[in-house]
Specification:
Length: about 160
């Protein structure tokens, strides 16, 4: 049996360990080899279950057109008082065409002060991105954005 660890699994494990330690970002587990709109819907159902997802309160900021899918800036912000009684527990981001439907989950608490997460992601193709905020009261709010990618991250050749 080959126990060699590939780069992706190493980075995912490292990020999950660091996120669990810092209480910030946890990488979602690996699923199928390629995401589809159906795989994205299944990944979302795994997070929210049968709870309805409402539109609103979530702002998803990323460029509608990107030249290079290797580094796409993304900011998710959620309207929330961020008090002990009412706060955003998590922000989940999904995509429909990358190798994995789950991009990341950021765990938050009332001491964060604001429900805002910013990062850069890779996009392998033009696709829909979905951000879902989970409240301390068990509600889910969402926003969606379509992104057109002219040069896919997964298709670039090393120079």
């Amino acid at each position: 049996m080959d126990h060699q660890m590939d780069r992706r699994r190493f980075l995912a494990g490292t990020a999950a360990t660091a996120g669990a330690t810092a209480g910030a970002i946890v990488v979602l587990p690996f699923g199928s080899a390629s995401a589809t709109p159906e795989a994205m819907a299944a990944a979302i159902r795994k997070v929210v279950g049968d709870t309805p997802i409402r539109e609103g309160r979530v702002s998803l900021d990323l460029p509608p057109l990107v030249e290079n899918g290797s580094t796409v800036p993304l900011v998710v912000s959620v309207e929330s008082p961020m008090t002990e009684a009412d706060y955003i527990k998590a922000i989940h981001v999904f995509n429909e065409k990358n190798p994995q439907p789950g991009v990341f989950t950021a765990r938050l608490g009332p001491r964060n002060g604001r429900a805002v997460v910013g990062t850069r992601i890779k996009l392998g193709d033009s696709q829909k991105i979905v951000a879902i905020a989970e409240t301390s009261g068990g509600q889910f709010w969402s926003a969606r954005a379509d992104v057109i990618v002219t040069l896919a991250a997964c298709l670039e050749e090393a120079t």
